[in-house]
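It would be a great kindness if you could assist me with a short task in structural biology. The matter concerns a single protein, recorded as an amino acid sequence and a row of backbone structure tokens. Kindly check, if you would, that the fold set down in the tokens agrees with what the sequence suggests. Thank you for your consideration; the sequence and its tokens are set out here:
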Amino acid sequence: MALSPTAAQRRVIAAADPVTGRLKGPESQLAALVKRGLAFRHPRPPHDHFLTPAGHRIREAPDEPDAAAAPVAPGPAAPAAGDVFAARVGGEEAAPGDAGPARLREVRSAWQGLLELRRMTHPDGSTDRPCGWERTHLVRAAALALEAAGHRPAGPDGGDGYRVRATPQPEAVAVYEPDGTALRGCAGTLERAGWQVGEHTEPRTRARYLLASPRKV
């Protein structure tokens, strides 16, 4: 469990750029935020510091006491990997508050953090296609893109809403949504997020679904 940031570190977090999460402040404070998993140092010059998704969460919910005490792991990829946040893949029980403003803040911060991870890890600094973490966490990555765009996940009892599931193919996920219009909306969202998407029909059930793979170029 990470220590809560100090008052001085909270001031640095509060002053971060609201979109990119770029930080400014004393090197000692920035290094302490990195150690807590709330920031990371960009590997390329000028080696600026940026908030991780956990850091964004604290910046956007400064008055929530348990936000500062949330468990985090060091390094920029750890929060996106689900140690602090997990996108809803559909079919799971919704936790209390999942439909409230706190959840919306978490989703937005996680998506911003993932875009920054793309920029940080792609040699050309692009954010228009999935990064290495997404290729090794296909279901969670596709679910985050959908939830961040406002699509509604299915509940545990089924009904309307998306469900993202693994497939036998090594770099593809299946997205199910019983409403045809919503399914096409999911396809558009994933394409804009850098995924290649095709619509298919299951031979046995005749149900329509999407097969989505991370775009490489």
